[in-house]
Amino acid sequence: MARITILGAGVVGMSIASVLSRRHSITIVARDMPGDPPSTEWASPWAGASFIFGGCKDRREMQMQLDAFAELWRLSDTSPASGIKKMTINDAFDEEKEDGDIWWKDHVPDVSRVSS
């Protein structure tokens, strides 16, 4: 088991710690932690953790996006103090998309398509 130190307790640092802690000993070094009072001295109370699929060149990048989405989804359910929340997103495309272009549609709950 490796001993890993993560600098920062924002969305990225906490997500990485959550995944790595399953197999490694994790230490988080941060001035501010989730649950601390909001302050303009740190970004997490004001920054959003949004996730939008797309822009992948290959299957490896698609899988990385699916894994990241799954972890954020899990954190939104299991760790309210993380500040990660599920929100409805509506995507609008300038050009007509085929179902194959929207590769993530079968991996995200409640995806629906509205024709123009």
Automatic annotation (TrEMBL):
Pfam families from the UniProt entry: DAO (PF01266)
Cofactor: FAD
Ranges of residues in domain FAD dependent oxidoreductase: 3-96
Assigned keywords, A-Z: FAD, Flavoprotein, Oxidoreductase
Regions crossing the membrane: none
InterPro entries: DAO, FAD-dep_OxRdtase
Record SUPFAM superfamilies: Nucleotide-binding domain
Entry similarity comment: Belongs to the DAMOX/DASOX family.
Protein name: FAD dependent oxidoreductase domain-containing protein
Organism for this UniProt entry: Paraconiothyrium brasiliense
Classification lineage: Eukaryota, Fungi, Dikarya, Ascomycota, Pezizomycotina
